[in-house]
Amino acid sequence: MILSINSSKPYDVEISTSFDGLKSFATGLKAAKILLVTDDNVSKIDAFNDVNTLLSNTGKQVYTYVLPSGEHTKSEKYFFDLHRCLLNHNFSRKDLIIAFGGGVVGDLTGFVASTYMRGVRLIQIPTTLLSMVDSSVGGKTAINLDDTKNIIGTFYSAIRVFINVKVLKTLPQREINSGMGEVIKYAFLSNTIDDEYLNFDNVKHDDEKLMILIKKCLEIKKNIVENDEFEGGARALLNLGHTLGHAVEALSDYSISHGESVLKGLNLIIDMSKKYYAFDDETYNAMKAIIKHSGIDFTSPYSGDELLKKVMHDKKSDSNGTTFVLLKQKGMPELVKLKNDEIRDLL
Ligand SMILES: NC(=O)c1ccc[n+]([C@@H]2O[C@H](COP(=O)([O-])OP(=O)(O)OC[C@H]3O[C@@H](n4cnc5c(N)ncnc54)[C@H](O)[C@@H]3O)[C@@H](O)[C@H]2O)c1
């Protein structure tokens, strides 16, 4: 399956059950060198060796860089270490960087690709469900600074994204749940994903269903990103569940995964939306049923006051309050600026 993203620099996303497309694409590129970046979990899976061998057979010089896994790797240290690696191996602007991993590898490597010599071509090969349905597409790159997530970054899209759903077989359940948090976010942003797809047990043994689920999520992202690539307005709708989700993630010192935090944030947003729009119990219960159907823990261990304190430090907050994505109903998100008192009342 191919999904074309018609952003300022258009590119295709290939969703399949192999890396055959990568081989022919990389062979056809005029690049003498490839830097294949991954982390120390992904470097151990067979697919990494397969891709490394496949790339070596394209006649190009392949270098690998294995990062420590985890959110803390999205740091200035590894940003500069990767640049040093490129420089030491005399990479030029004509060469190629490949991010092979989850959102951490993708965000950091994408940022490096956008800044080394003011931009080297990048291929994204996402290996987590979260990075397949979300972070590998749309061009946002970032590193964290001290306690602030994604505060330094660029918009820089890959020239192509290769998604091989077979790679998900080795992904731990915790990371599957994390990806499902983003999947369920997409289900609330539009009405195009059937409820059946919102419990991973229903799709995990069926590659075709997995590919359809990923494509449906990316189609929703594509529609939003194509209309607002650089987040002047509507792209912020993709932050559904994220403002409170980031607060949960930070309060847990990242022991609660990104997507699971988003799911908890989304659950709270449904409660806030019910109060804000005064919708009826039937609408509310139908929304809650979708969250429960996921089989993932969606309850937040933190009080409204704890969350509000964190939200006030969010980069999306200012002295006038914080912009939230609320739900008028399922499939009808709306950006709403709320003052701190209003947030306290709604939480
Ligand atoms: N750029 C964007 O638009 C965007 C969107 C959403 C999230 N993000 C970012 O993405 C990051 C989270 O990404 P993530 O959830 O993929 O986390 P991650 O990259 O940390 O990966 C999660 C874990 O899974 C392991 N792993 C990855 N693929 C595997 C595989 N196939 N088999 C076995 N283990 C595997 C990794 O080593 C890691 O331990 C956050 O930093 C978040 O800010 C970015």
Secondary structure elements and pairings:
Elements: E1 2-5, E2 11-16, H1 20-28, E3 33-39, H2 46-56, E4 61-67, H3 76-88, E5 96-101, H4 103-115, E6 121-126, H5 129-135, E7 140-145, E8 148-155, E9 160-164, H6 173-189, H7 207-227, H8 242-251, H9 258-277, H10 281-293, H11 304-312, E10 317-318, E11 321-329, E12 332-338, H12 340-346
Parallel strand pairs: 2-9, 3-4, 3-5, 5-6, 6-9
Antiparallel strand pairs: 1-2, 7-8, 10-11, 11-12
This protein binds nicotinamide-adenine-dinucleotide.
Nicotinamide-adenine-dinucleotide binds next to helix 4, helix 5, strand 8 and helix 6.
Uncertain spans: none
Hetero ligands: nicotinamide-adenine-dinucleotide
Helix coverage percent: 40-55%
How much strand? 15-25%
Structure description:
- There is one protein chain.
- This protein has 347 residues and is α/β, with parallel strands linked by helices.
- The chain folds into two domains: 2-171, Rossmann fold (3-Layer(aba) Sandwich), CATH 3.40.50.1970; 177-192 and 232-346, Up-down Bundle (Dehydroquinate synthase-like, alpha domain).
- It contains twelve helices and twelve strands.
- It has helices at residues 20-28, 46-56, 76-88, 103-115, 129-135, 173-189, 207-227, 242-251, 258-277, 281-293, 304-312, 340-346; strands at 2-5, 11-16, 33-39, 61-67, 96-101, 121-126, 140-145, 148-155, 160-164, 317-318, 321-329, 332-338.
- The chain has a seven-stranded mixed sheet, with helices on both faces. It has a three-stranded antiparallel sheet with strand order 10-11-12.
- A hairpin with a 5-residue loop joins strand 1 (2-5) and strand 2.
- Helix 3 packs across helix 4 (103-115), helix 6 (173-189) packs across helix 7 (207-227) and helix 6 packs parallel to helix 9 (258-277).
- It is globular and about 60 Å long.
- Bound molecules: nicotinamide-adenine-dinucleotide.
- Nicotinamide-adenine-dinucleotide binds at residues 39, 41-42, 45, 69, 71, 74, 101-105, 107, 127-128, 130-131, 134-135, 138, 140, 149-150, 167, 170-171, 175, 178, 258.
- Nicotinamide-adenine-dinucleotide binds next to helix 4, helix 5, strand 8 and helix 6.
